[in-house]
From TrEMBL:
Organism: Glycomyces buryatensis
GO biological process, one term: pyrimidine nucleobase catabolic process
Pfam family, one: Flavin_Reduct
Taxonomic path: Bacteria, Bacillati, Actinomycetota, Actinomycetes, Glycomycetales
Protein name: Flavin reductase
InterPro entries in the record: Flavin_Rdtase-like_dom (IPR002563), NADH-dep_flavin_reductase (IPR050268), Split_barrel_FMN-bd (IPR012349)
SMART domains listed in its UniProt record: Flavin_Reduct
GO molecular function: FMN binding; riboflavin reductase (NADPH) activity
Domain (Flavin reductase like): residue spans on this chain: 24-162
The keyword Disulfide bond is annotated on this UniProt entry: no
Amino acid sequence: MKETGILTDTTETLENGHAIRSALTQLPRSVAVVSCSHRDVVNGLTVSTLSCPTYEPPRLAASIRRGSSTLASIKLAEMFDVHLLRDDQLDIADDCAGDAPSMHRALKAIYSATEADYLARFRCSFESVTPVGDYELIIGLITDASVGVGQPLLRYGKRFVGVGSSIIE
């Protein structure tokens, strides 16, 4: 299968898979927690695939692993929240990527936070989901947002970093 562009055929993609993945880690990405409350159950997870596909109307998009309980809740509730993390909130990123008790403890802290406790917060109305590999790309219309304080937590290379400094090697 020949195509014009960066990848010329499937064989080349497979042979260069490691190089492609390594190159993709060089994209700096914001770290956020995507969460949803449905029928008194709160689910959430850490993502570093957040993007803003359009400003007018304002939308956010994130990739979530297929089969995730958070993804199932978002589809049912038709609403989700995005909490952009600060560079001093690595513990929240780790907890929301971990087991259920850790995730629920972190989400309790997130939902009781004030503007001084986060970088930015968005409320989104679920619009669509598109299967992409073993993930699903969710898109939501931003219905509310607030800005907190601090510097962003980023994913760069294979580590979390703050602006101008490494947090984890």
